[in-house]
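If you are new to this repository, start here. Below is one unmodified record pulled from the training split, so you can see the exact layout before writing a loader.
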Amino acid sequence: MATCVNCISLQLVFLLLVFCPYLGSASSLLRDGNIRVVGLPPPVPNEGCKVPPDQWMTQQLDHFDHTNMQTWQQRYFVNASHWIKAGGPVFLMIGGEGKADPSWLAADTEIMINAVKYRALVVFLEHRFYGESHPTSDTSVDNLKYLSSQQGLADLAEFHAFITNKFNLTAANKWICFGGSYPGSLSAWFRIKYPNLVAGAVATSAPVEAKLNFVEYLEVVRDSLATSKQGEDCVNAVSEANIQLTALLKDKSSWPQVEKLF
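And here is the target side for that same chain:
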């Protein structure tokens, strides 16, 4: 039984190590080859407000290898119910480490309150590898090389061009991007990397400082684990598993055991 518990703990730590760069206020899990996130529930749509339907655009698999011509279908949502085309701004909601829920565009959320005020077109792009946006058939190690913030930012740039063409936008239609936590970082980085595309960025709770040893995030993970039913027992189990995994990785003779576990 102890061995089984240790194996489960080791696997949990492995998932945390792999997906920590993509985590924000939610916890990521890998099930049946799909990345899923457990986090806050989506907002409740306003009464009588229609939830935007799924829409799809053709996206490049790899934006940085011009010999790779593979494409895939990326999901997005649109709410144009308050938009004035002549000079109305475009609000871009950036998806992150979880399924994109169109309810955010049908409730009294920050972005929609401002959309009503400024008569904006609101668009919402789901992040690659999450929700229904699957660039590859599985999440193997080879395919996860396409899961990065750099690819995500390039997706946003292509989405900008796609929406501009679809709605015949002009320079008068200024873009503002919105995001919180990891999407907040993307929002800030998108403004920095593509200042010609967006006039401003809202980055809520965005960890934008690049750090090799990001211990502060692990503190957030620890606090999140402590809220589980097992509480501190869960925290201690993960901590012990981390120690065990580190020891195994330092010993080359233990690598086959690690490979078998994961």
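Two things worth knowing about this chain: The chain has a mean pLDDT of 85. The longest strand covers residues 71-79.
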